[in-house]
Design goal:
One of its GO terms (biological process) is DNA topological change. The active site is at 519 (o-(3'-phospho-dna)-tyrosine intermediate). Keywords: Coiled coil, DNA-binding, Isomerase, Topoisomerase. This protein has 561 residues and is of the alpha+beta class. 48% of the residues lie in helices and 11% in strands. It has 17 helices and 15 strands. It has a 4-stranded mixed beta sheet, with no helix packed on it. Strands 1-5-6 form a 3-stranded antiparallel beta sheet. The chain binds a DNA duplex (22 and 22 nucleotides) through residues 113, 147-148, 150, 152, 157-160, 163, 206-208, 211, 214, 217, 219-222, 224, 235, 239, 284-289, 294-295, 297, 299, 327-331, 365-368, 370, 381-383, 428-431, 433, 435, 438-439, 442, 511, 513-514, 517-519, 541-543.
Length: 561
DNA sequence: TGGCTGACTTGACAGGATCTTC
DNA sequence: GAAGATCCTGTCAAGTCAGCCA
């Protein structure tokens, strides 16, 4: 299935057949006993107004609803959907009371959870039926799983960070909004009764099955295949092959950008410093963004003067650059990095006579950078450096950390540490889990108990040894052997618990999943598992094994990235 | 060259499913 | 078998980058 040949990029498929997206269920009216109150008085709302009110009510215990921008955006959009009478009456969000609606949904949710087993099973079966019909497509004779076959339900927009559009109304997607993509000779999906599609087309140069434009940002949304599909797998493989190509030319590229640090051309000089950051720190490219339309986040090319501070000396190191900015998803990037003298001098030059809000690399854009990279290597773009550096780091760390004689849990700790090094490089963070402190305490209690158990077992061993010394018979000898084994077993368990605790503590605020799924060539992990006798299931769960089926089939223990 | 659009990947997180513990 | 912890999966926002057009 994964023969070593690449698909022609222009043509993606010959046959594509599916049932179209599955639409979010229609809104159901609130029961009569659940009220919305305005200015302390119950008020019956029209269908549309009520539906939007429920979106807000459901989010009442979320931090979003405490934010002014969210409240204002919500209220503005809500008013637009009201009847003229409602609009006349409802003037202030502060006078709206959604509590009863909120409680109603909370109780409904609890009731759903408390449903008897049989009821739950019934619901599960219904969901499976839907999945069976809408969740798969036929592409070039293969039945493949679809990634997201449901349209996004209406609700309030949840932008990340300080998003200026948070709280706006995300409208219901209707069949009339949806473009269907399928092959000409296939059975065209049926729109829901009484509706029609916006368009049905056959474009085999793209991989999506259906698309629509969302109303908040005017962006396109797509129904696409699941990562386990052959099409996605091939693309994934290609991505890592490009990154492996970079391995062959990276030292040449590095020499060149170092030379360019002294270029007389400002464009080249800025480009060379930016590329150095992208390579060394695995920064994202940093496309320009429309001001006021999204949260204020940056990447390398869009860094502003205010995002870095220069320290000739800091913590005993020279030429330190302190980065502090919000990156993708408004995740903070904070790092103090010693750099080469020439880079430091260049940064001083780039910052000269600029205001904090000015672009650091004012002569550089992501497209000019990528054009340059394309000239250096076919298929090379800024993000390839991230993939390359992530994968090579994993490989190097695994090499350095794995001890052949270690137990499987110890090897897994090494693997996680290697994975963690990558996640730190790529700045993949997560919020500390809510239950972290408590579960850490529980784990510590277990460790303490195990220690006691070990001490007891050791004392016991000492006793039977003395007994054997005195008696010197077979029975007492067997007892000694038995106790010895017991002590070993407990020691092993204790070591395992300790490793688990270390792993957990080190992982407190770091997300491993993103790098594992998107940046680490899975063949490195497969090879490592084969080489060190670690079952692949310990590294990849079922879904991940499906996504990386190509790598599992392809890589042997000698694979080198 | 730069703005815009479309296609696709990357990313954090919520909540459901499953496992573990008592 | 209930409760709690952990894992897994889906969701959907937010990036990257190529190609088109003026």
């Amino acid at each position: 299935m994964w023969e070593e040949e690449k698909r022609d990029d222009g043509v993606k498929w010959q046959q594509l057949e599916h049932h179209g997206p599955y639409f979010a269920p229609p809104y159901e009216r609130l029961p009569d006993h659940v009220h919305f109150y305005y200015n302390g008085k119950p008020m019956k709302l029209s269908l549309a107004t009520e539906e939007i009110a429920t979106f807000y009510a459901k989010m009442l215990d979320h931090e979003y609803t405490t934010k002014d921008i969210f409240q204002n955006n919500f209220f503005n959009d809500w008013i637009k959907e009201m009847t003229p009478e409602e609009r006349k009456k409802i003037r202030e969000l502060g006078k709206c009371n959604f509590e009863e609606i909120h409680t109603y949904f909370a109780e409904k949710h609890e009731a759903q959870k408390a449903l008897p087993k049989e009821e739950k099973q019934k619901l599960k079966e219904e969901a499976e039926k839907i999945q069976e019909k809408y969740g798969y497509c036929i592409i070039d004779g293969h039945r493949e799983k679809i990634g997201n076959f449901k349209t996004e339900p209406p609700g309030l927009f949840r932008g990340r960070g300080n998003h200026p559009k948070m709280g706006m109304l995300k409208k219901r997607v209707m069949p009339e909004d949806v473009i269907i993509n399928c092959s000409k000779d296939s059975a065209i999906p049926q729109p829901p009764p009484g509706h029609k599609w916006k368009e049905v087309r056959c474009d085999n140069t793209v991989t999506w099955l259906a698309s629509w434009t969302e109303n908040i940002q005017g962006a396109l949304k797509y129904v696409m295949l699941n990562p386990s599909s052959k099409l996605k797998g091939e693309k994934d493989w290609q991505k890592y092959e490009v990154a492996r190509c970079l391995k062959g030319v990276v030292s040449k590229i590095r020499s060149q950008y170092r030379a360019d640090w002294k270029s007389k051309d400002m464009k080249i000089r800025q480009r060379s410093v930016a590329l150095y950051f992208i390579d060394k720190l695995a920064l994202r490219a940093g496309n320009e963004k429309e001001e006021g339309e999204t949260a204020d986040t940056v990447g390398c090319c869009s860094l502003r003067v205010e995002h870095i501070s220069l320290h000739p000396h800091l913590d005993g190191k020279e030429n330190v650059v302190e980065f502090d900015f919000l990156g993708k998803d408004s995740i903070r990037y904070y790092n103090k990095v010693p750099v080469e003298k020439q880079v430091f001098k260049n940064l001083q030059l780039f910052m000269k006579k600029k205001n904090p809000g000015d672009d650091l690399f004012d002569w550089l854009s992501t497209s000019s950078l990528n054009k340059h990279l394309q000239d250096l290597m076919d298929g090379l773009t800024a993000k390839v450096f991230r993939t390359y550096n992530a994968s090579i780091t994993l490989q190097e760390q695994l090499e350095a950390l794995t001890n052949e004689d270690d137990s499987v849990p110890a090897k897994l700790l090494s693997y996680n540490r290697a994975n963690r090094a990558v996640a730190i490089l790529c700045n993949h963070q997560r919020a500390t889990p809510k239950t972290f402190e408590k579960s850490m305490q529980n784990l510590q209690a277990k460790i303490d108990a195990k220690k006691d158990q070990l001490a007891e077992a050791k004392a016991e061993l000492k006793r039977v040894k003395a007994d054997h010394k005195a008696k010197k018979d077979v029975k007492s000898k067997t007892a000694v052997e038995k106790k010895k084994k017991m002590v070993e077993k407990i020691e092993e368990q204790l070591a395992k618990l300790n490793m688990h605790a270390t792993d957990k503590e080190e992982n407190k605020q770091i997300a491993l999943g993103t790098s594992k799924l998107n940046y680490l060539d899975p063949r490195i992990s497969v090879a490592w598992c084969k080489k060190f006798g670690v079952p692949i299931e310990k590294i990849y769960n079922k879904t991940q094994r499906e996504k990386f089926a190509w790598a599992i089939a392809m890589a042997d223990e000698d694979f080198e990235f």
